[in-house]
Hints:
binds 6-O-phosphono-beta-D-glucopyranose; two-stranded parallel sheet
Amino acid sequence: MTKFPKDFFWGGATAANQFEGGWNEGGKGPSVADFLTAGSREQVRKYKNPIDPNQIYPSHKASDFYHRYKEDIKLMAELGLKMFRMSISWARIFPNGDDEHPNQAGLDFYREVFQELKKYNIEPLVTLSHYELPFNLAEKYDGWSNRKVIDFYVHYSETVIKEYQGLVKYWLTFNEINSITLPTGGYFNGGIMSIVDGKGFGPEEYPEETSIEVSKRFTALHHQFLASAKTVKMAHELNSNLQIGCMIAGLTSYPLTPNPDDMLLFQKHLNTQLFFCADVQNNGEYPYYMKRYFKENDITITKEIDDEKVLKEGCVDFVTFSYYSTGCLTTQNDVEKTSGNLVFGAKNPYLETSDWGWQIDPKGIRFFLNEFYRRYRKPIMITENGLGAVDTLEEDGKIHDPYRIEYMKQHIEQMAEAIEDGVELIGYTPWGIIDLTSMSTGEMHKRYGVVYVDAYDDGSGSFDRYKKDSFEWYKDVITHDGNTTFL
Ligand code: BG6
């Protein structure tokens, strides 16, 4: 029996800084992502300015979508995609972020991309800010910690939402907005140079933040909430059909044991890390539990008198989150650790891990879909999911990736269960549908796609595209509306 609705958005996801390339072409200004060097599991990515010719900067060429978008969109159409999640690079539209007038070549580029998608009836889902802001805003204003950046963002969001009316209906204001509640989010999400200058990505780079630093991150987040709410209101006034969503990093964990201390830790984590931002963006106000969290962590943020009203008037229309893995939480110290998307946790003895140490937990997607849905009762999309793995391009041009098929199959089955549970799940856009560079490590060989890109960690390669076995498999899933008996 098919559990997925006929109009389900079977999709794929990317982000400009990891996929687009053309970092200094077509009048684009540099973004914070353009100064991040390549790293690995062992070596953290670093912020390096000025550009060092002896370093690799993965965003500069990325997967070269900038020059290959027609070929890529044709492949997406062949795959049968109904939705393509991508981001606009803010610095391609406003090279310095604080410019008055947009860069026409940037506007033209995305118009061509959206027209190409329309040609194949692929619905775009566009993230306005996916881990990059124009570098000038970071350098000159200390990024999102400065309230002025709200106006620059709204000027940008209004420009593109108006410009692409009729071409783009679904928008996300910030990718994984809750990432800035973690120290590492201060750079790629917040552009807060006063905290991150000279530092990199690993948690060990931020041993102990001062209360001023933590407060800056949460102030930056407050500004993003306001920018998001103003954008939602503006978009709805422009056209009531436009749908604006939030995007939350699935920092999903379980308690390691039934010890009440672990349960309380779990609850605190759910509230303050997973749901806090979604609570604000859906309910238009700060949740009760953050008062204590702010007090205990010595966090002070400056709010203005109208802020409450602004938040209330800009609640999102739908909810999305990324889901890759789960970890465990415990008050015990001597436990085995595991890594995951943006976070580290205690190892779950019931789960296997990916080559990058992320625990694979298909049933968790059902659990957290239910948790999100019962909290907000709005349509939901999974806007990122997938297995980062090493793939091998065979001499005959084939790539056999049964591990990826298995991962996707198990997650799709659990999404079907969630729909059966009553969750209004309307879309699924697995991450890096065409291979792209990794965010956490900057590696190319951590691949998620069903399409292989012939590119390597050192920036070499033909950049030609090859269909993996998972391409044909996902195509069949889409053709059969995700019918689970077929799976
Ligand atoms: C999400 C980000 O956190 O995880 C993406 O939104 C990122 O930008 C994805 O690429 C997967 O993480 P990684 O580190 O494997 O690229």
